[in-house]
Amino acid sequence: MGYYTDAAREAEQNSEWWNAYRCWMCEKREYAYEQAEACKTIAEAVDLGDKFRELCGDSLNRWARHEINSRELHEIQDNAHKQAYGW
């Protein structure tokens, strides 16, 4: 295998999806573009999930401690979902 293939696979093993994407894009084999696009899809999904969790903050813990009620938790999560995912 080529240097970039090995680097891409190592990055995938470590869940470093953007790095894997870049390595696959440097590889000049037939399947590399499809591999790169798959890594890009995963990276974007992880980024969106991180953004959603950041926007929710500690709301789930606050709900568990009865600091906020279920309606308030739902509002926080709904707003975070709209901001993170755009719908």
Can you tell me about this structure?
The protein is mainly alpha-helical. The chain has one domain. 78% of the residues lie in helices and 0% in strands. The protein has 5 helices and no strands. Helix 2 packs antiparallel against helix 3 and helix 3 runs antiparallel to helix 5. It is elongated. The model has no long low-confidence stretch (mean pLDDT 95).
Topology:
Elements lengths: L2 H11 L3 H10 L5 H25 L2 H6 L5 H16 L2
Helix pairs in contact: 1-2, 2-3, 3-5
Brief sketch in words of this structure:
With 87 residues, the chain is mainly alpha-helical. It is built from 5 helices and no strands.
User: Total strand count, please?
Assistant: 0
Beta-strand fraction estimate: under 5%
Mean pLDDT across all amino acids: 95
Q: Which oligomeric form is depicted?
A: single chain
Low-confidence stretches: none
User: Fraction of residues in helices?
Assistant: over 70%
Assign an overall shape.
elongated
Radius of gyration: 18 Å
The first-to-last residue Cα distance is: 42 Å
Helix/strand class: mainly alpha
